[in-house]
Design brief:
38% of the residues are buried. It is built from four helices and six strands. 34% of the residues lie in helices and 23% in strands. It has one domain: 3-Layer(aba) Sandwich (Rossmann fold). The longest helix is centred in the last third of the chain and has 18 residues.
């Protein structure tokens, strides 16, 4: 099963960290990028793959993305595929932070085929007092890793 049409649902608020990552992935997959509030559930049948991403806020994906997934109808098991991506100031715990959204998607009938995370400039909460952390992230290297992540998904979908 190849990747024909991809939709990336992204919420990037403060410094556009995640929007940069979404664009790097979209450039490889020739994907559309939309905010969760602009994506009707009925239109998901048009896509072979959806990507969902946001910054991590106090250990969680953006509330708009979480709400969109929570309200999503259950799909019949027909190979519906998704991937997750995020940015955060403290990347050590990204797998833990991805886990709830990944579980919600799986309960809705989606197969989460891949996950990506990188550092992002973070000034949320008390971090703004000291000028934030990871000021220069995502950088060119991070964005190349995001593009490589997307190429790997293409290769897994087209093994020959």
């Amino acid at each position: 099963m190849g990747i024909e049409r991809t939709l990336i649902i992204c919420k990037s608020v403060h410094h556009q960290n995640t929007a940069k990552v979404a664009q790097a992935i979209a450039d490889v997959l020739h994907a559309e990028i939309c905010a969760p509030e602009d994506v009707p559930y009925a239109g998901l049948d048009e896509y072979d793959l959806i990507g969902l991403g946001s910054g991590i806020y106090f250990g969680r994906f953006h509330s708009a993305l979480r709400h969109w997934v929570c309200e999503m109808p259950i799909v019949p098991s027909q190979g519906r595929r998704a991937f997750l991506f995020s940015t955060s100031g403290l990347p050590l715990f990204w797998r833990i932070w991805h886990s709830p959204l990944k579980s919600w998607l799986q309960r809705k009938g989606w197969d989460v085929i891949a996950e990506f995370h990188c550092r992002g400039f973070d000034t949320v909460g008390p971090l703004w007092l000291m000028g934030g952390i990871n000021r220069h992230h995502p950088n060119d290297r991070d964005l190349e890793h995001a593009a490589s992540f997307a190429r790997d998904m293409l290769l897994r979908s087209h093994p020959c």
